[in-house]
Automatic annotation (TrEMBL):
<dbReference type="InterPro" id="IPR051815">
    <property type="entry name" value="Molybdate_resp_trans_reg"/>
</dbReference>
<dbReference type="InterPro" id="IPR036390">
    <property type="entry name" value="WH_DNA-bd_sf"/>
</dbReference>
<dbReference type="InterPro" id="IPR036388">
    <property type="entry name" value="WH-like_DNA-bd_sf"/>
</dbReference>
<protein>
    <submittedName>
        <fullName>LysR family transcriptional regulator</fullName>
    </submittedName>
</protein>
Amino acid sequence: MTEREAASLSIRINLANGGRFGPGKAALLRAIASGGSIRAAANTLAMSYPRALKLIEEMNADFREPLVASSVGGSDRGGSVLSATGEAVLAAYDRACREAEAAASDTLHEITSYQDLDSP
């Protein structure tokens, strides 16, 4: 199956407290882990810095412990990292996505079989 033919799932988890966690927030966490700062993560994702901050505030409020820890600039220039909870939540989310996609693979293949692959 080519990449164009491949179907995939994206999962949004509706949290018990009313918050949501899905592919956008997961991507932001990955970018923070990779780049070491909120600004770098926002740039990587073509997202505004205020939007990234808002999403981080939402995530930090939605869980018992913050998912992202930030330090202010200064001689060590500050930065942001995922907390242990942030790493655990991201790993669990990624695992849920893999498990759901594996469980739905036959259905995804069926849906893909109805696609018109000649259309742009």
